[in-house]
Amino acid sequence: MIGYVTFGTNDREKSAKFYDAIAKEMGVGRMMDNDTFIAWGEMGGAPGVAATKPFNGEAATVGNGTMVALQAKDEDQVKRIYEAALANGGTDEGAPGPRGEGFYAAYFRDPDGNKLNAFLVTGPMG
């Protein structure tokens, strides 16, 4: 079971603005916050997301093929998360819409280039 996912960041403030907006739409806030690390979610709740300066002091980089999927409650929330992402420094990787049978999603990157999506399983996937 995943407890939380961490993204490296080179700009804590840009990451904070981006993830604050998405967390707000998903009904959660910051659960941990210090000079180098912010985590969003609820203690004891669903897995959270964190942005941190890398512990080794090197620049944060993007993992090729790595993506975190944020489960939305309905198609409208997928759209709102996507819009919040783009309005807060994110970039488009695929507008909201159906992605094959039984799957609805939107894809975007955070200000550091990490890839995420907001998704909803709408029925049997085939």
Structural description of this entry:
This protein is of the alpha/beta class. 21% of the residues lie in helices and 37% in strands. The protein has 2 helices and 8 strands, in the order βαββββαβββ. The strands form 2 sheets. A 4-stranded mixed sheet has the order 1-4-3-2, covered by helices on one side. The chain has a 4-stranded mixed sheet with strand order 5-8-7-6, with helices on one face. Strand 6 and strand 7 form a beta hairpin. Helix 1 runs antiparallel to helix 2 (75-87). The two termini are 25 Å apart. The mean pLDDT is 94.
List the helices and strands and how they pair.
Blueprint: E1 4-8, H1 12-25, E2 29-33, E3 37-41, E4 48-52, E5 67-71, H2 75-87, E6 91-98, E7 103-109, E8 115-121
Parallel strand pairs: 1-4, 5-8
Antiparallel strand pairs: 2-3, 3-4, 6-7, 7-8
Provide a quick synopsis of the model.
This protein is an alpha/beta fold and 126 residues long. The chain is built from two helices and eight strands, in the order E-H-E-E-E-E-H-E-E-E.
- The name of the CATH topology is 2,3-Dihydroxybiphenyl 1,2-Dioxygenase, domain 1
What is the N-to-C order of secondary-structure elements (H for helix, E for strand)?
EHEEEEHEEE
Helix content estimate: 10-25%
How large is the share of residues in beta strands?
35-45%
Which CATH top level class fits?
A: Alpha Beta
How big is the Rg?
14 Å
- What is the makeup of the main sheet? 4 strands, mixed
SS-based structural class? Answer: alpha/beta
Annotated CATH homologous superfamily:
2,3-Dihydroxybiphenyl 1,2-Dioxygenase, domain 1
Mean pLDDT: 94
Distance between the termini: 25 Å
- How many domains, in number, for the residues? 1
Q: Taking strands numbered 1, 2, ... along the chain, how are they ordered across the largest sheet?
A: 1-4-3-2
CATH architecture field:
Roll
Q: Name the poorly predicted regions.
A: none
Shape: globular
Number of strands: 8
- How many helix segments? 2
